[in-house]
Amino acid sequence: MSGVPTPLRPGRGVRAAPAKLGEAAGRNLHERIANTLGERIVGGAPPPGRSLPTEIELCASLSVSRSALREAFKLLAAKRLIVSRQKVGTLVRPRADWNMLDPEVLAWHLRANPTDGFVTGLFEVRKIVEPSAAALAAERRTPEAMARIDAALADMYRFQDGSGRLTEADLRFHQSILDATGNHFLASFGAVIESSLVASFQLSWDSGHHTPEYSLRQHQGVTEAIREQRGADAYAVMTQLLRSASEDVRESLIRRQRAGLGAEGAA
Questions:
Q1: Chain segment 139-186, per-residue pLDDT in tens
Q2: Which residue, among 94, 90, 71, has the nearest Cα to 10 in the 3D structure?
């Protein structure tokens, strides 16, 4: 996870980190520009209600053409991060207007050192959706759906020492439960917030706040409740699993913030 993004200040040239545009080398140029500016905006630079630097300043600092920059602005506007107004310039919209379920907006938040409010909001949404999905999966699960949940859990046990694709297996576990509901809206939920799930899983496993064995027992409990069609138990265990994961993510972020402050002090 990156540090605090370089602020963008109206009226001043901004030096873009070349690695920022280079990180997404496979993208079109305007998508890479949007990625760079989007990450900075969600990091609070500039804050909502303030203007971005002028097009001339941004073109110079990012070494891009005006046409590419304007295409990037269209992408950011579609995600409701910015709005252009005559005689005022391009403004950052209020956070309440942002499309928070957009995969890239979520990813930008996670790379820009997510706040406690962001983590709280993410887990509130998960606590509303996933326990109910687990209960519904217990009611509707098919042998094929159960096999996919079992396979994901088996891989989590296999990779619990961190030597393999633990985060990917964790994602498959939760997505398999959503799929097992047979509800296409719920199945799409995991895909929509996949970037946030992956990042939160990584933070959770890295925190050390709860042991891997403790987390795996919770995942095992959800699995058994679904297998035995105990919907109320599936709901309860998934709720506890998410509560523990939220605590782990916060602990991991606190440690990273302390490490960052320590590095700044040493510098």
A1: 999 999 999 999 999 999 999 887 668 889 999 999 999 999 999 999
A2: 90
| Placement of tokens 């020492």 in the chain | 161
142 DSSP assignment: -
* Residue 3 included in any domain: no
Which DSSP symbol is given to 96? G
In tens, the pLDDT along 89-146 reads: 999 999 999 999 888 898 888 787 777 888 888 899 999 999 999 999 999 999 999 9
Does any domain span residue 59?
yes
226: CATH: 1.20.120.530
Output the six-digit token pair for 264: 């700044």
Residue 56 phi, psi (nearest 5) = -60, -45
Which pTM value belongs to this model? Answer: 0.75
Which residues, in sequence order, are bridge partners of residue 90?
A: 84
In terms of residue numbers, what domain contains 69?
18-97
Query: Shortest CA distance to 107 belongs to which of 142, 145, 78, 79?
Result: 79
Query: Does residue 8 lie within any of the structural domains?
Result: no
Q: What is the distance of C-alpha 53 from the center of its chain?
A: 27
Amino acid at site 19? A
